[in-house]
Design brief:
alpha/beta, Rossmann fold, 6-phosphogluconate dehydrogenase C-terminal fold, VC0802-like, 3 domains, four-stranded antiparallel sheet, 13 helices, 12 strands, about 45% helix, globular
Length: about 375
């Protein structure tokens, strides 16, 4: 297979930017370039990436991809398919095409219809953040995250083998799946939870009273479990429409399970309620504590005294030891939490350093299970 020296990006946000940072860190000689449809007014993220030396250049012409040995499609799911079609007559026959979208069926089918299957392999890095854009990208974003690869029956073996090695080089975990299987799995553990979170928030919104007491009391466990409802509306609109069949199948099953709960309330079935919480708790405890399709948060909860300067003391201690804080706040509703102060960090290594430091200063720490 041809040596990969020129790599192009279409779409350059959190995921594309993080991949580009990793590639640049591995090889300073790579030609890394990104497409900007604005042409005369490049996006700030692209200009920042170029000024930092991550991108070699920015192009406003798709014809520039004739030079690419590898192309990452990092736009929304439906747009990736449009760009796949636009690239067909431009890229050379040995160019590897991949994407980073969370739905694989439609784009795999499109690659087949365009005759691009031999050089196309779907990709889905299962990592992210509530923060978007290149400015929030990081070489650590993909570390220990599952990175799904979905070759078709026509994808050349060297293409799959190269992408597996590349993902391993990112310190991510490659998982090779069939595209259809991927979409069923993500419907269950990623797409449906986002819909549930959004509608749960909307239920509280429409059920609240004029004093907005529900909104006030939602700060805590409720806000935490519905955190993913803050994701990009445009992105999730595209995902829902692209993976409609699999999501609807899982949604119908979930609705049926809720109807069972409703019947148990009508019957006062104590055994049923005990069983569902016991089974859910046991199964959840068996889930590895690693990055998956829903974002992992590197956070700790701390018991602190109610006195002036308590939070400042902790922040100063962490800062003096070179530990950056991503977010910090008081937990007002502690129904589901231990510890009154919540601190979130950018990376797992930073979290571990903070735990050791704070424990050494006799703070009582808690982590969510």
């Amino acid at each position: 297979m041809k040596e990969i020296k020129s790599i192009g990006f279409i779409g350059f946000g959190l995921i594309g930017g993080s991949i580009a940072r990793l590639l640049r860190a591995q090889d300073a000689t790579l030609d890394l370039f990104a497409y900007d449809y604005h042409k005369n007014t490049p996006a700030p993220g692209l200009l920042l990436a170029q000024s930092e030396g991550v991108l070699s250049r920015i192009t406003g012409e798709l014809s520039s991809f004739s030079e690419a040995d590898l192309v990452f499609l990092c736009a929304p799911v439906s747009k990736n398919i449009e760009y796949l079609s636009a690239l067909k007559g431009i890229i050379h026959k040995d160019c590897i095409l991949t994407d980073v979208g969370s739905v694989k069926g439609d784009i795999t089918k499109a690659a087949e219809q365009l005759g691009l299957s031999p050089q196309f392999i779907g990709g889905h890095p299962m990592a992210g953040s509530e923060q978007t854009g290149y400015a929030n990208s990081s070489t650590m974003l993909l570390e220990n995250a599952y990175y799904i690869l979905t070759p078709s029956k026509d994808t050349k073996d060297p293409v799959t083998e190269y992408m597996v090695r590349l993902v391993e080089g990112f310190h991510a975990i490659p998982v090779v799946l069939d595209a259809k299987k991927h979409d069923v799995l993500t419907a269950a553990v990623s797409h449906l939870p986002h819909i549930i979170a959004a509608q749960l928030v909307n239920l509280v919104r429409t059920s609240d009273d004029e004093k907005e007491q529900m909104r006030m009391l939602a700060a805590g466990g409720f806000k935490d479990i519905t955190r993913i409802a803050s994701s990009s509306p445009a992105m999730w609109q595209s995902i829902c429409l692209s993976n409609a069949g699999s999501i609807k199948e899982m949604l119908d099953r979930y609705i049926a399970s809720l109807l069972e709960v409703s019947d148990a309330f009508s019957q006062g079935d104590a055994k049923y309620f005990y069983r569902i919480f016991e089974q859910a708790g046991t199964y959840r405890a068996s889930i590895p504590n690693a990055r998956g399709m829903l974002n992992r948060f590197f956070e700790i909860f701390i018991d602190i005294s109610d006195e002036a300067g308590a939070i400042a003391t902790i922040a100063t201690l962490l800062g003096a030891n070179g530990i950056s804080i991503k977010n910090i706040g008081i937990i007002h509703n502690r129904e589901f939490e231990q510890g009154v102060l919540r601190i979130e960090f950018y990376e797992e290594d930073t979290l571990l350093r903070a735990k050791r430091l704070l424990a050494a200063h006799n703070y009582t720490l808690y982590e969510r299970g």
